[in-house]
Amino acid sequence: MEPTVQDAPEANRYEIRDGDQLLGHADYERRGDTVVFTHTEVDQDTGRKGLGSTLVQAALDDVRARGGSVVPQCSFVRGWIDKHEEYQDLVQQR
User: Ranges for the N-acetyltransferase domain (predicted)?
Assistant: First the structure.
């Protein structure tokens, strides 16, 4: 089964799960249409590679679909966006 990513607004985070098992999360603060990513964490003990990238890409795709922008305070999210030019337009310009 492939992990799935869903927004969990009640917890202020995007979650990546395999069934009922939580594999990781990207915490955020919403400020209107802007999503400020503050922390990302994935379970390294699953033996799976790329969970963080899957999580961040799905979260950013969701923000894009909603017409929002992001502030990548989290170093993992910032680094991921830096490596993927096609997502740099989502970063809110100051």
Answer: 6-92
Q: Are strands 4-8 and 13-18 parallel, antiparallel or unpaired?
A: antiparallel
What distance, in Å, lies between the first and last C-alpha atoms of the chain? 41
Instruction: Give the tens place of pLDDT for each residue, 28-55.
Output: 999 999 999 999 999 988 778 899 999 9
Q: Which of 33, 31, 2 is nearest to 23 (CA)?
A: 2
* pTM attached to this predicted model: 0.95
SS3 of the chain: helix, strand, coil, percent, to 5: 40, 40, 25
Show the tokens assigned to 89.
């337009």
pLDDT band at 16; cut points 50, 70, 90? very high
Q: Which CATH class is domain 4-90?
A: alpha beta
**Could you tell me the two tokens for 12?**
């202020």
Report d(CA 87, CA 82) in Å as an integer. 8
- 8 Å CB contact between 14 and 28: yes
